[in-house]
Amino acid sequence: MSRYNISLDSYKIFCTVAKYNSITKAAEELFVTQPTISMAIKALEEKLGCILFIRYPKGVRLTSEGEIFYSYLSKAMILIDTAEQKYEELIHLDSGEVNIGASDSIISGFLLPYLDKYNDLHSKIKIKVINRTTKETLELLKKGVIDLGFVNLPIPLDENIDIIKSIPIHDCLVFGTKFKELFNGEFDIKTLEMYPLLMLEKSSNTRNLLDQYAKKNNLTLTPTIELDSTDLLIKFAKINLGVAFVIMEFVEPMVDNETVFARNLLPAIPHRAIGMVKLKNIPLSHAANAFVDLVLSPDNL
């Protein structure tokens, strides 16, 4: 409500009458009766304490006060109409933006088909993806830079973060033809010391979890090469630079058992998951909700 306790409808009626210089045409456009228009204009003039229109037998004309009032109010009404139009576009996903944070391995191994499908379904929505570690993704989420994060679980308990969905994943070892003997029989974690290891950098959540797994088995993992990309780990393993820890679900298409092989360790690496996370008690935009719905309904892919 305005300082004069004047409704938006009253302003809309005034602007429509001023636009046509006619109560009759304003009534036709607004689908109301002429007496309704006349009463609304009279009530508006009484609240403002001035005459806005001079009445003629064949129409009306703005007074000088009415001209000034209309010059400002008409611009405001255009902005209101634009705001309503943009809001409608957001609701119907004809515009908007979704901001997502995730590591490169989660992006390439999990998110790509969802991003592809989302872009196909909602081509007018701008998709922004920020490539960060799990820890950095959570920080971006708490700062409001991203709408959704996809992170390696577990993560520290945080009362401000909701885990919307958990997607199970499994860690394994991959290697090339030089280490093919690993494919023939059981492979105990103790024998890892015999092979050059390829691992993600210590800044990653995956690396920290693998280090904890090794520590529980009285072993310290000392990689020959540390990388920040799962794709590079696979490529390095394929050319026999070492044995790489990767997520099975992310590399299955590349494990052909001819040039790239995969094995599980004994004892088994604890199963874990990817979490789709958002800020608790903060509603998502329509664009972000549509992405959540797509991930929650993988049959849509």
From TrEMBL:
Domain HTH lysR-type: 6-63
A GO molecular function held by the record: DNA-binding transcription factor activity
SUPFAM superfamilies per UniProt: Periplasmic binding protein-like II (SSF53850), Winged helix' DNA-binding domain (SSF46785)
Origin: domain of life: Bacteria
Sorted UniProt keywords: DNA-binding, Transcription, Transcription regulation
Family: Belongs to the LysR transcriptional regulatory family.
Name recorded for this polypeptide: Transcriptional regulator, LysR family
Species: Clostridium cellulovorans (strain ATCC 35296 / DSM 3052 / OCM 3 / 743B)
